[in-house]
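Appendix B.2, paired examples.
Example (i):
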Amino acid sequence: MKEKMFRGCGTALVTPFKDGAVDFEALGGILERQKAAGIHFLVPLGTTAETPCLSATEKVDILVYTKECCPDAKIIAGAGSNSLTGTLENIRLLTPCDPDAFLIVVPFYNKPTQEGMYQYFKAVAESTDKKIVMYNVPGRTGSNMLAETTLRLAEIPNIVAVKEASGKYSQIAEIIRCAPEGFSVLSGNDDETLSLMATGADGVISVASNIAPGPIVKLVEAIWADRMDEARRLFHLLLPLYRNCFVEPNPIPVKAGMSLLGLLRNELRLPLTPATPSTIELMQKTLDKLEL
């Protein structure tokens, strides 16, 4: 049987800032906390990392630092854009840092056709020997990659997974049902982790695991072991965190929560702004209930 490259919980890492610059000291602490929790893989330079607001030098420095801190971790580096040219430039920039795979989002704003999506991902895959993880998130991109397109792309040898955040259960279930051997289906929404993994998904790329990596790792591993009573208990414990991490645009709430835990400064780059007082209060109540 062809082994799946990505399974379990992968954290879509935030980028900590201090006085406008990347805070590598804080990032080191965050990464050590992820390792201690037994996280299964890491995803720097995604949406949660505020990557559109990072310079090319910062992207390279963050990826190099992540690999230095976590040499044994599998790493999927975000490299997508809304143009083939931009995405290939990102891949050329980051390939020397040697990530295990690139996370490539469906091109945003352009609203391509299904054939356009297919040709785009095919061209990306053909440009590199690295593995490709596709990312379908219609709420941010404005277009949904259908199951038929995903499955067609899954036949390309170095396209090894999809992060599915369409929120369309029947669509994702069809991908799980028909995916070729060795192709991973990962939930892109924390609150769908239990339902999708119970259907056969392989894990989750999580925002909430920036805050609670340990409990989310335990949830995933309980599902793997078919300990469903434990999995349901953990899921319901985590559900308020899952919900509250998105009361404002990601990563505003998660950075507020992490600042309350002393992991980073509550600092973002424009056009994102720090959480409102009501969100900070909500996140404090959420953390108190989790006893983190």
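Example (ii):
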Amino acid sequence: MNTVEIKNLTKIFDDVPAVDNLSLNIKKGEITGLIGADGAGKTTLMRLITGLMIADSGEISTLGLNPAADKAKLNPKIGYMPQKFGLYEDLTVIENLNFYADLKNTAHDFKKMLEFTDLDKFQHRLAGKLSGGMKQKLGLACALLGTPDFLVLDEPSVGVDPISRRELMKLVKEYLNEGMSVLWSTAYLDEAHSFDTAVVLDRGKVIFEGRPFSLGATSKAFEAEIIKLMGGYKKEESLIAKSVTVQDYGLEFTVEACNLVKKYGDFYAVKDNTFCIKKGEIFGLLGPNGAGKSTSFKMMCGLSAPTQGTARIMGTDILAQPSKARSHLGYMAQKFSLYEKLTVGQNLEFFAGVYGLAGKAKEERINGSIQVFGLEEYVDRKSGELPLGYKQRLSLACALIHNPPVLFLDEPTSGVDVLTRMDFWNHITSLAAKGVTILITTHFMDEAEFCDRISLFYRGEAIAVGTPDELKRKAHADTMEETFVNLIRSQSK
């Protein structure tokens, strides 16, 4: 029996199909993974299935009901967790649960739910003070109120570390014993083997549907087959790296973190963080949500004052000479941080000015960036309207506009498709080969393999530093995901 039956479904926005003549069945009592990049059609499809949106054409049956015509009957049967879950950050965990129980008009004993999600000791903490993984657990708990027949989770693991992702999946699988069906969307191809059925979307169409092991026995094999289905990937010379010239400053270390400490009251967000990075090295900061990675980034960029210690960029102390230090640095933030109401061209012009470019040099760098980043057709479009992959290109273009010798990238590939990720890493490794020093964070463990060295963060401290192979040997693991999990769990005991 099927929980959802879809036939020839189409939904169009601005003459572009978000869902394109799609047919699909979702089986009862299983976890179906809806896999694809931002813009692939995952969220639109989920909203159509749950009756939050009406299709332009085609047929949908959800739990035997028409989601558009029978939405009032369907609502109590569905637990829905949207992509940007609407937690009330100024309410506590227990207050959020009470609020959503009232919305669903359901009586609930939260004791079991809090124990089940391991939130019992945090029930009086404000939701805004939770880590990313705990926020997602609270979102899942709210979606499960009322014991729904069908659980719909829109990217519950986005931006969440591998351990928290495993915990979320474990929680959901335990609920399956009651016969519930689950639709779980994700941009992570490495999650495919956690699902009973994997459905891969690309530009509103299904390019694969079936048991994940039938396509590839491992995550790498599965990804390789999906790349083929998407048309393949051909590695080409990076025009971005070709356009960059790195001056030789004669320094052994281009980036130095010197006993960095960030303390909030008695809580250490970062504790005695020290490392040195050489010219042209790709240095990865890995760790669970809330480990202190982004806090370290902000301190090293001069965006947050350290409680103790300092950082040096190209030999310049970030505290003593912040403007000079930042002039050597290009920074790409975790979340799209450009001006969404400005056009692509206006953003490039603004950042070129901020970094001190003027006259002919400024004009040449802007025109060159538009060309090498392939932004010609988007120059006059507002940056907030760009597809995610092009937002990432624009962010990197703005970070590199002043030809910096050091580049900080905070989760630069989150949410983009596998081909865009591969292209992005081609640019990153090519930039490093030209002598650009790169500090990067990521939750994609396969990306960690591209780093020359890695610092693994946990509870504000570096618990292991070394090459990917050195860390794998230390953790007695074959993959970086196993390495991450083993080393973090060894510290938790």
